[in-house]
Amino acid sequence: MEMKIAFLQILPGKDLSENLAAGKKACVEAKEKGSDVALFPEMWSDGYFLPQDEEEIRKLAISKDCDFIKAFQSLAAELEMAIGITFLEEHDPKPLNSVLFFDRTGKEILHYSKVHTCAFSDEVVLDAGEDFYVTDLDFGRGTVKFGSMICFDREFPESARILMMKGAELILAPNACPMEINRLAALRTRAYENMVAVATCNYPEGQPDCNGHSTLFDGVPWRREDPGARDMCVFEAPGDPGVYVATLDLDMLRTHRSGDIMGDKYRHPEKYGILSDPKIRDVIGGEFVPW
Prior knowledge:
Blueprint: E1 2-9, H1 16-32, E2 37-39, H2 54-60, H3 67-79, E3 82-89, E4 96-102, E5 108-113, E6 134-138, E7 143-148, H4 157-165, E8 170-174, H5 181-194, E9 197-201, E10 215-217, E11 233-236, E12 242-249, H6 250-259, H7 280-284
Parallel strand pairs: 1-2, 2-3, 7-8, 8-9
Antiparallel strand pairs: 1-12, 3-4, 4-5, 6-7, 9-10, 10-11
């Protein structure tokens, strides 16, 4: 069984209405290309614009119940295609960096807010999300368990690990940063160590500090019937704007998950207590000082 994932690697407009129009057009193109789910880059509602003035950023934040979000909910049902729409979300005391997924019937199935905000940089004006979530995505021909992480979440092994332990087979990850060799290596590692597929949608070249290269790592580093290792990166977009579609072989992933040693199979959680001890920060370096 296969599913098709659309990466809406597109440039934002100057305001919410332009982003609504461009986003809807991209979703229609994704459906025309046979996609089961369409994923936006990070914070599509305002093109990842983060003014540092509290009043100004509050004006840009929107509710999950606003017309912008409801338009994509209706579009998901109209196209019979799941959509992951990203936005700067209203929240007190600070906004959230969020993604909302609607299934092919327009039903809300997952609402996630970025846990690991870049609080050392522009995202200091945001609040962090509270948890990681996994749910079922029915795409018509079958069902896949999926969760989400957003951009900087990628740099923390705990993000993907928790999603895996909650049952995720697929991680859909909005993004807004340069996808270079090290960040791509982190995504590859998250897929490898957890036996999950990781699909990341980035902004294209032309968006400040972004370069495209949306990717799908399918989580299968080797197959018993084939000699040697295989490249888990089954799709990497160029830098150009576009709606790119990649195919995930769920049967192959599930076969690998059932017979390999990674994931949760040989963990020793009783020995990992230090990972959840906040006091350890005082031991390993204290306050972070940016370059």
